[in-house]
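Feature request disguised as a bug: please show the residue count (383) next to UDP-galactopyranose mutase in the output. Example input:
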Amino acid sequence: MYDWLIVGAGFAGSVLAERLARRRGERVLLVDRRPHVGGNAYDRLDEAGVLIHQYGPHIFHTNSEAIVDYLSAFTAWRPYEHRVLAMVDGMQVPIPINLDTINRLYGLSLTSEELEAWFAARAEPVADIRTSEDVVVSAIGRELYGKFFRGYTRKQWGLDPSELDRQVTARVPTRTNRDDRYFTDTFQAMPAQGYTRMFERMLDHPNIHVMTNADFRDVREVIPHRRVIYTGPIDEYFDFRFGRLPYRSLRFVHVTRDVARHQPVAVVNYPQTDAYTRITEYKHLTGQEHPKTSLTYEYPSAEGDPYYPVPRPENQALFKRYERLARAEADVWFVGRLATYRYYNMDQIVGQALAAFRHIDAQLGRPAPARPAAATGPSLAAG
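Example output, currently without the count:
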């Protein structure tokens, strides 16, 4: 008999497994249908021996000291500030758009103050900012919107920005200084030995049993457990009772090149050309020394594993119907990006999982005395 069956071995499920085992002394069965732990943050050595992220680049950044302190129990850190270039009009320029972006693109020598006026002269007033198109056009005008945002967004989401909630492009700011960092959080770093090693340490506890290549529907019928934490798609949990929630998926093509470096930064975006949205070169992220380099070409797709909830009002209304069912489920907690149909950064998922643990701990009260673990100890299949 397990105290908890946790579905999904990504950040949400793994953090809760660790807290419940270590802080409450309870027995946890953590299951994942994939052959590894770590969810989308899973990284591995490829055939050439280069450390890559199987599901595209994952860059850790946060303003929360508490989240850094928690994760630091399981990893050392490599300082890394993420920089992205966009291939626009045949040249690679910084994104988010900043002073250097505009000066290079247009052959200008504007100052920060002059750039503010330059943007203002091109901005189109929008009375009611509702869509992603509204956000960009009202700030920097239609020409830059066309160069940087429209094509990329259409590829990424399969929808025009005018059909998407404003939050999509609001995530990418526009700057009038020369700050070319993609993020401005106070803490920006990568796990020194990779994400997979961090997850392995997090789950290395005698009260945690990890079962990969396992489907929740099969496990829940045959393995006794008292309570469930579910981090998978909420519509799937309820057998798609009201229909499927729309997600955007991704297809990744991993290649190795017989050169030490392919591009000047970790990520180059392609808003104007090609079917892929971006190319990632991982050695920039990891600091690995290797005579070869490995890249990932990223192709958005309507089919495949769910990655991004599609931010439209009708989709949120459908989620609310599932959320009402979830609230009525006894002894089941829904946590994480897929279970709450919301895009979270990694630190936000960790924060949500830690908050969920505090809620569970308060709700259930003092746990029973910890039982001794099985002699076999934990089982990890992390690749």
